[in-house]
Write a structure and sequence with these properties.
0% strand, 3 helices, globular, Protein Yjbj, Chain: A, single chain, mainly alpha
Amino acid sequence: MTTIEIKGDWNILKGNLKQKWARLTDDDLQLIEGQEDELLGRIQKRTGESREAVEATIEEYRAALAI
């Protein structure tokens, strides 16, 4: 997979997450690999959902994109 494909998949994933949780900002979603815990924390804080629910949703979107 090329860098362009990876960036494209990430952009799709970000779009899906913003549709699911409209309170997320672009800054929230700028966090990338190595900062997953911070991203999960930000999503939890903005949405009030449990960590497990957030992780499950992100994993669903990742699986749908096969990334």
